[in-house]
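User: Hi! I'm a student and our assignment asks us to look at how structure tokens line up with a sequence. Could you show me two examples?

Assistant: Happy to help. In each example below, the sequence comes first and the structure tokens follow. Example one:
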Amino acid sequence: MSRAIVVAWLMLVLGFTCEAWAGVTVRIERAGQRMHVEVDGAHYASWSISTARRGYITPPGTYSPYSLQRMHYSRRYDYTPMPHSIFFTGGYAIHGTSEVRKLGRPVSHGCVRLRPDHARALFRLVSQHGMGNTRIVVY
């Protein structure tokens, strides 16, 4: 087998491609309580967020969103409004919050909270590019 075929096969098996990622990448930095958003590989925004407080977890990993809801009400937490929800695993979502003064600190039950205008902008980006073209990386 030629070397080029072996390299191509390894790239396919390991998931590497020669193309640049086209779409939305959302990087959630739990330690710094920041979200970094890229569109088609270019920086779009960096925002202050809130992730899980002590005793809860915002699960680390790489995800694609599976549901977009303009307004969701948490059945688990007293029907708390979750505007512009982007669900990415289990019941975990990125969504807007009215508690903007708490952003920058881990205070949630596991969801990723954003200012309402930032949540709206991200929701619009994911809607435009598609859930299949969106990566959410939590670290």
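Example two works the same way, sequence first and then tokens:
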Amino acid sequence: MSTFETFVEIEAWQKARQLSKAMYEISSTAPFARDFSLKDQIRRASVSVMSNIAEGYERGGTKEFLQFLSMAKGSIGEVRSLLYVARDQGYIDERVFLDLTARGTEISRMISGLMAYLHRCGFKGVKFK
């Protein structure tokens, strides 16, 4: 793993962005779109994943980055849990459910890998220019 110049270069952030886009798309279709509470919750949780990665990176310190990565990991768990609710309510079919949960699992693993990397390499944070 190499160092990053911006959070946009972090693959976990890129994948989280794609998943967030997918969450907006699937929650815009009926009947999902009419379940305002679930729609709002899954959208906020998916945006939270990419936002926490970005915010943690921009804070510039390893401890804070790790803390925000931990929150991002929690949010991706929330997204995966909410996908079960969407499937159980019939808002998404099994194929969509399996695809999105697999993507969520991949993002979770990437975040875990990034956290382990930061612990191992002694990352000291962003150097602002």
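Here is something you could point out in your write-up. Residues 49 and 72 are 4 Å apart (CA to CA).
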